[in-house]
């Protein structure tokens, strides 16, 4: 500009301004066009008005929820969780539990046997035996888990169900402890209005044995047979001692109680589920309600 004649300066200045704004405008336009193209390419083939892909948070299965509550209550009473295999030896499932070879539960029509003679456990009482094999008394455990029976499948039966068993071995354990423990547990679960009936029964591994009936408004206000229980038969302690090769479970010194119940039927009542198969059909429309 300093070499330009004074009278030409205004004209030249204006011309340069015009050139600069023309170039700037053209650049902006081109940038906007390129961006629009990029946006269009990014959305090509996508209908942004369609609903997105939802990632719903799942819910715990009704039986799992009941199991968790059950475990929490027994934990407060000092019971520890114990575990064992679903595939068991006949000894752990029957012999150790004082269940002789001719007992109907051992029938091939009632139990799933493997070719090698092992079987799918028919109850989680096997875990009581496994626990006594490796620990010395006192023992206070619960053993939840799958159990298997060769049942005809219908609205109230599956070939697999979920069982919760407990074992308490200590000095001076009595039927009063058994009743107190179960009544406390079921009142925590079903409310303080629960009533109980302990009916004499027979289990090979407990003596005396009882079946427990419960009546509670949470369970529809009708008497329901809910659990089996009893005082551990000294013959079970003797079996365990023989296997261990010691006298850790001297029946003159130790007594204990055991109990067992199924969670499936309780979960059915609590969720008003009319058919047990709804629990295993894996239909989200059903299970997500709980
Ligand atoms: N194991 C028994 C059953 O499966 C239940 C039970 C457990 C009974 C412990 C008494 C004591 O039917």
Structure characterization notes:
By secondary structure, the chain is of the alpha+beta class. Helix content is 36%, strand content 22%. It is built from 8 helices and 9 strands. The protein has a 7-stranded mixed sheet, sandwiched between helices. β7 and β8 form a beta hairpin. α2 packs across α7 and α4 crosses α6. The protein binds phenylalanine. The site of phenylalanine has 12 residues, from β7, β8 and β9.
Quick synopsis:
The chain is of the alpha+beta class and 290 residues long. The protein has eight helices and nine strands.
Number of strands: 9
Low-confidence stretches: none
| Small molecules bound | phenylalanine
The share of residues in helices is: 25-40%
User: Any idea what the radius of gyration is?
Assistant: 36 Å
List keywords for this structure.
290 residues, alpha+beta, 7-stranded mixed sheet, two-stranded antiparallel sheet, 9 strands, binds phenylalanine
Per-chain topology:
Layout (H helix, E strand, L loop, with lengths): L8 H35 L18 H15 L3 E2 L5 E2 L1 H4 L25 E2 L4 H10 L4 E10 L11 E11 L4 H16 L4 E9 L2 E10 L8 E9 L1 H11 L10 E8 H8 L13 H4 L3
Parallel strand pairs: 1-4
Antiparallel strand pairs: 2-3, 4-5, 5-9, 6-7, 7-8, 8-9
Helix pairs in contact: 2-7, 4-6
The structure holds phenylalanine.
The site of phenylalanine has 12 residues, from strand 7, strand 8 and strand 9.
